[in-house]
Specification:
heterodimer; A: about 575 residues; alpha/beta; nine-stranded mixed beta sheet; about 20% strand; B: 4 helices; about 55% helix
Chain lengths: ~575, ~80
């Protein structure tokens, strides 16, 4: 964190807030108003720190103090000059940060001041004080709109939402140059989490919702399909609005699931037949309606989707159910649901934990992919043996080098994959791009499709080369592609490429986390020799020409062109 | 000193309540940094539902002065 005002309170607060979501950050705090030197200096503790997120917090009040004071007598040309100079200087800083780190930049915008000195005539000036800051904000937003590294952090919106009359404590500003009140630092820290969670792969993947009094008003078992409240008139319109908001989640790649304690036939009838029901079956990746407890439902949903419980969030109107889930399954994010259903949609709007740094094509179709998965499961129960099932899937894969088009998906895979991930190293797009141009790195992607549809890019392998040795820095497979031998086929292809390249030794490592037990024996199973075994990691090596790894007979390799 | 006052101070400085007394100054308490001081003011305002003025704050020389301030604002 660097900037021109007092940011010190944020350190402690941000650490605590991150802790609530399972993140333990190391924080570097720049000196008061030292940001220019820290960013531009050849040798700088900022860069030694090697940050993954750089927060550049500039207070407009401090930065433009002399402009604000004499604003009414300032010539229009001076205003423009100052704004241009600021943008130019800032861009140099941002470019330097991007060049010297691989992290993402959160650039604060400016709080637009209230009650400008020229009063009601501020709007009659060519460039009033409010417009001056609004223009700066807009120009910053436009400048970095297409950047994959720089995110404009909308402090102005954040302050407006919580109240411009309350975000600052003037005495704290005069005493300690604190731009914000203590409470507002808390709010800021929570907003930073929207960026931190997706970057660390700790954001939630699936929102599990209850039905009665959550997706519609009333209890279906008592009121019946004609008695529940759902539709275009109050109060049913509040529930409809909430469903619309959930559909937005679905469209950005968040999975939706149902957990309801009800008679299945009663509840599913509403989902299938109620004329005003927006969220039909196809939008849910799992639907569980029975009389077991909610924690049991959630466990089934997580295992059905092949994701961890810590990838789930739970939205239920009943405070007893929420308490029950909180105490039995602390990994699940339990949403604090307000009593009034007219506030459900707003609560969904402000949820922290579902943000994405980028929406990929994968995200837009993820919900459908899981609906396809349900059809696969149906087939699984119809076919007799596993072998038969795998053959019947008609799996086709394609292994190719990561290219500029697949960089963002590659980065996302490192950030989202927790189970079949040998090293769980998280990489930003910047880092992946660096590997892409590096002569000492190779990156392979695995794409797969079957008769139900395209699974997309589901695997990634990053190799670091040194002479005739390849070290596998990352090897992972998305959870939705597990259980079909794809990892084995992928490794087989990687080894084949190594052999072709004249490689004499391939080294792999496994770094155990609480979640990747599924891949702990992966290298050993596939003929690698164990060379070191520690608590924190195990290392393996293989002579490519001696490899006896089998390519699963139910998978076909296709070339890139045929795959599309 | 007021019991709640003592407990808020002890909480912010992260020391035992028994070590807090009215004559302590920044020179005695190494945790009394300017940052901790701002936090203390903010916590006291929240806890006692008062708003100190900037004059109030610069007048505080030792912890006991907060007792006087809270009395002045009718909070204790």
């Amino acid at each position: 964190m660097v900037g021109n005002a007092t940011l010190d309170p944020l350190v402690e607060i941000l650490k605590r807030k991150c802790g609530e979501y399972g993140v333990a950050p190391h924080i570097f705090l720049g000196g008061f108003n030292q940001y220019t030197q820290e960013i531009l200096a050849r040798k700088s503790t900022l860069y030694d720190f090697n940050p993954e997120i750089i927060i550049l917090a500039l207070s407009g009040k401090a930065l433009f103090e002399n402009i604000i004071e004499g604003f009414t007598s300032l010539a229009e040309s001076d205003k423009k000059m100052r704004a241009d100079a600021f943008l130019k200087h800032t861009d140099v800083l941002i470019k330097t940060i991007c060049k010297r780190t691989q992290g993402i930049v959160l650039l604060h915008n400016f709080v637009v001041p209230s009650y400008p000195p020229s009063g009601i005539l501020d709007v009659k000036q060519k460039m009033g004080l409010k417009r001056f800051f609004e223009c700066l904000n807009l120009r910053l937003e436009n400048k970095y709109r297409n950047s994959g590294r720089v995110y404009l952090f909308d402090v102005n919106e954040c302050v407006s939402f919580h109240g411009k009359s309350r975000y600052a404590d003037p005495k704290m500003y005069f005493l300690a140059k604190m731009e914000f009140s203590w409470d507002f630092y808390e709010i800021l820290a929570a907003e930073y989490l929207r960026y931190i969670l997706p970057l660390t792969g700790l954001n939630r993947k699936c929102l599990v919702v209850d039905l009665d009094n959550t997706l519609w008003g009333g209890v279906i078992g008592e009121a019946g399909i004609h008695g529940i409240r759902l539709g275009h008139d109050p109060p049913g319109n509040a529930y409809l609005a909430f469903q619309k908001r959930l559909l937005d989640f679905y469209r950005t790649g968040v999975l939706l699931a149902v957990s309801s304690r009800n008679n299945y036939e009663d509840a599913i009838k509403v989902i299938r037949e109620h004329p005003d029901m927006l969220l039909r079956e196809k939008y849910f990746s799992e639907i569980i309606i029975d009389w077991r407890s909610k924690p049991e439902h959630l466990k089934d949903i997580a295992s059905g989707l092949n994701i961890g419980l810590d990838s789930l969030a739970f939205f239920d109107d009943d405070p007893r159910e929420r308490e029950c889930v909180k105490s039995v399954l602390p990994e699940v994010l339990v949403v604090d649901v307000p009593d009034d259903p007219s506030r459900f949609a707003g609560t969904a709007d402000t949820l922290v934990g579902f943000e994405k740094l980028k929406i990929t094509e994968e995200d837009k179709t993820r919900g459908r992919l899981y609906a396809d998965a349900r059809s696969r499961k149906k087939l699984k129960s119809e076919t007799r043996s596993l072998d038969e099932f795998l053959h019947s899937l008609d799996m086709r894969i394609c292994v190719s080098s990561v290219n500029p088009y697949s960089v963002s998906r590659a980065s996302q895979l490192t950030q989202r994959t927790n189970q079949f991930n040998l090293t769980t190293r998280r990489y930003t797009e910047g880092q992946i791009k660096k590997f892409l141009v590096s002569k000492s790195h190779l990156m392979f992607s695995l794409r797969a499709k079957d008769k139900f549809g395209d699974l997309g890019m589901v695997g990634l392998c990053i190799i670091s080369k040194s002479g005739r040795k390849w070290s596998i820095d990352a090897f992972l497979l998305s959870c939705r592609a597990l259980g079909r031998g794809l990892e084995q086929a992928f490794l087989h292809e990687v080894i084949k490429k190594a052999e072709k390249d004249g490689v004499t030794s391939i080294e792999g490592e496994c770094i155990p986390t609480g979640k990747n037990a599924v891949c702990h024996d992966f290298y050993e199973k596939n003929g690698f020799e164990s060379i070191r075994r520690g608590d924190k990691k195990a290392s393996y090596s293989l002579l490519p020409s001696r490899s006896r790894i089998l390519f699963p007979p139910w998978i076909k390799m296709v070339s890139e062109d045929n795959h599309e | 000193m007021n019991e709640k006052l003592v407990s808020v101070i002890a909480g912010v400085f992260e020391v035992r309540a028994s070590t807090i007394h009215k004559d302590l100054t920044p020179a005695h308490v190494k945790q009394w940094t300017s940052l901790a001081y701002m936090k203390l003011i903010s916590e006291l305002e929240k806890e006692f539902k008062v708003n100190f003025s900037i004059d109030d704050i610069v007048e505080v020389k030792k912890l006991g002065d907060f007792q006087g301030l809270l009395e002045k604002h009718g909070a204790v």
